[in-house]
From TrEMBL:
Name by which UniProt lists this protein: MFS transporter
Lineage start: Bacteria, Bacillati, Actinomycetota, Actinomycetes, Streptosporangiales
Domain of life: Bacteria
Taxonomic source organism: Actinomadura rubrisoli
Classification via Pfam families: MFS_1
Entry keyword Transmembrane helix: yes
Amino acid sequence: MRGGNESGSLDLGHWRTPRPRQRGRPSRNSSRGVFSVSPKPPVPSATTERARHAAPSPATGAPGPDPGAEPTGGSAEPTGGSGLIAVLAFTGIVVALMQTLLIPVIGRLPELLHTSLSNSTWAMTATLLSGAVATPIMGRLGDLYGKRRMILVSISTVVLGSLIAAATSQLLIVVAGRAVQGFAMGAIPLGISLMRDALPRERLGSALALMSSSIGVGGALGLPLAAYVAQHYSWHTLFYGAAALGAVSFVLVLVAVPESPVRAGGGFDYAGAAGLSLGLVTVLLPITKGGDWGWTSPLTLGLAAAGLAILALWGLLELRLRDPLVDLRTTVRRQVLLTHLTAITVGVSFYAMSLVLPQLLELPSATGYGLGQSLLVAGLAVAPMGVSMMLVSPLSARISAARGPKTSLILGLLVIGGAYAAAQGLMSAVWQVALISTLVGAGIGLAYSALPTLIMGAVDVSETGAANGLNTLMRSIGTSVSSAVLGTVLARNTTSFGGAEVPNMTGFRISFLIATGVVALGVLLAAFLPGAGRPATVRYRAAGSP
């Protein structure tokens, strides 16, 4: 096992991380990531010794001390890391804004892009697909070539994609720009992994919680901001504003964030990256467009079957490689696998609120259940979700430190489920919607904060970028499934109003009921996660040993 056991705990006396690259020809034993160099074995460097102290603690996954050594974090000179935490959290929020940037104008996209409603949704779908592809690939590149370097590359795509989309109203160019924007999603798991390498252990728990929650904070806070801009300025201003935020974030990372000294061994798996990208796009495309194409149409079913076949072949390829893009043997460990599956349920529950509540707020009050609010008011009513996610991040870190991240995750899911159950009777006033969004945000903040801690407690320090990228992908898959399923529910439960079909209250209630059921499944999955027990010994054989 690489750096972790099924309880998420570590025997620090046996922790070993990849050394900096040495000249010579590497040889491997059966434990991936352990190197020797012929003809001389490498001498441990200061970087190696510093990285060795970055092993997670039994309860939280935060770095713990090596026995007999003074506790330190992953950086050479830990200074508290306040600037680094703030910059990386800001970067995560900026990246997450790209996901909700066009939601306030989604109903006007056919007019703005001079196309049909079905075609206009590609401006949303393109970002989702490219983000799903980018997260595991950028995570692996960060492990190999530097996490800060890949964060800068990711932020660059925000600026480039925004400028492409801002320059025109032609559908294909806007979709291309949105696809480029989506590649920025890789910055969030990279930031989580870089924090593990750079921060002192006493700061890591709360920092990971804040960074992990940034994806929801950015999405929630971006809604009222984007709604205000869309109401008072040209919709192209949304993209120019996104480019400006991306440029600020790039400069801040360049100035305030140091590069991680930790590197993985081996090379980049180009075939694996191509196979995973093709498989993900082929599977997610029918999920996101199945409502337009028809769920039983040959195109939808054919693409889904082809995507699953591609992913199966990709999995077989990854198992045969010495340096795969995704280490599937690590992925199927109980703690890692259950955390990924639970992340899907959290993604479903997150998007359910984002899809239902804005529509409920904006529908005319003449329908008998709509609240008749403007885009801006609707965004402000949902914004408390982001605020509560940010506020509960330190609480989640303390719970994880005291009781373990499993407890944090289950507690978060229970809060989400309780909020959705209460929403069945709390949809008749704006303050009720704001209350539900606050409670759901608190639960998602607790759950999101626990996910990377669970992952990093079970994988080697050199694989945290790829592992966190895959976990972020699982959340994206959850939002895609939620969009498809709940979108279909709302489309089939409608009322005629003003010559148009609008979602009715039955559709809203069924959507929340589905979300509650998915959260219950998440609680069940999380219950089977290993608890924080006695650390198991993790042994690595010396290079060349039998």
